[in-house]
Fold:
Amino acid sequence: MDSSEALPSSSIGPPSTKFLQMLRPRLTRKTESVVEEETTGAVIIGDVQKIPRTTGFFEIISVAFNLLSSWLAVASTLILGLSHGGSAAVLYGLFVIFIMYGAVALSLAEMAARYTTAGGQYHWTALLAPESMKRGLSYSCGSINAIGRIACTASIDIIVAQLFLAMIAFNIPSYSIERWHTFLLYQACNVITMVYNLLALKRTPWTHNVGFQQVVVSLVSFFVISIACLAIAQPKQSSHNVWHKLINDTGWDSNGFVFLLGLINPTYGFVGLDGAVHLAEDCFEPAKTVPRALCYSLVVGFTTTFFFVVSMLYCVKDIDSALNSRTG
Structure:
């Protein structure tokens, strides 16, 4: 295409025909910023020619599942749900959060199918918001997303620090966990994460090419832990305690409010759901692959989390003792 040749506008359909016609630059194909994918009707936003697409369907789904790691995330924060509502709040809260995140996943999938951009939410906001508000809304959306990523990384590092010290306390009865121990180890995890991303990431690209293997390890661990705990734990909790017992030790009078507080536990299992969206420029057929990855990772994450939580709740002999244990 010559630099003087405009991109065809008739193939771009609703709902954003007028805006996209104004947005399209009259540049060469090497630097065009909005291109319509002829096979799917999706609008690819970005410098599509300079980004090699090397990731297939299963790799994107694997990465999306690994980013969620739903059953691991819920398992590591299970104490939050048990102390704010008990087993009933955790189990039924999973269904509530699954429905809510299902709506989010379907919305993201619709946008990803139409506008394939690694920017995701802030880019879609810039495209679809009213002209007078798009800059402010797009900037706000991008800032919230960035802050959320920072908070998510910080929460993972603090969980690693807490679990590591809990294992030490469990195996060494004389050791007492101090808050400053947790803080120092947490900062050490932050430094390790930062150094890896700044210095080692480019030298170890293979760590991002083992997505499917990580899924296999995660699923095998899920089955092994669940089956082993069910086989070893004796006696087990009664079905009434697992499915009907609501614990309210928070000081609040309203059990409904306590149930809402307990939703933080199942919610944490689906943080990072939009991860597949930001890989749109790395995968083949992003208009099809990304929406499927969003939905599949949510369904698999919910299924594994639900069965894992049910298994663990039947295996916990005394919830009150578990909540007050020295390992936290």
